[in-house]
Design goal:
24% helix, two-stranded antiparallel sheet, 2 helices, globular, alpha+beta, SH3 type barrels, five-stranded antiparallel β-sheet
């Protein structure tokens, strides 16, 4: 019984030690993503009431609960990164007062709305 408890404890500790923090994952994504530059603009798709949330890194665990966009909000996507079998975009949103907000969001919640480059 003590062996089982010891093995379980070791597995839990080792699992936590190898898990990436959101800031570590964000750095990995920045270093390994597909760069778009300022080439594409996107718009949030979905029905009224839908919300797509910002993430500090491309992972569901890094969700910023108070920060989201709604359908028809327009953004510029700078990078693409695949994680957790999903495609993530690093985007910038500029509100009506000129304040910009950047972060990772799920690509599936957007549709391309145009090209910003000639």
């Amino acid at each position: 019984m003590k062996k089982i408890a010891l093995i379980t404890t070791l597995l839990i500790v080792c699992g936590k030690a190898s898990a990436l923090t959101c800031s570590q994952l964000s750095k990995i994504a920045d270093d390994n993503s597909i760069m778009y530059g300022t080439k594409y603009s996107f718009v949030v798709k979905g029905q009224k009431g839908f919300r797509t949330y910002f993430h500090s890194a491309p992972s569901a665990q890094c969700k910023i609960k108070q920060l989201f966009l709604i359908p028809k909000d327009s953004v510029v996507a700078y990078q693409e990164f695949k994680n957790e079998n999903k495609t993530w975009l690093y985007i910038m949103y500029i509100d009506k007062n000129g304040k910009d907000t950047s972060g990772w969001m799920l690509e599936r919640d957007f549709k391309i709305s145009g090209s910003l480059s000639p």
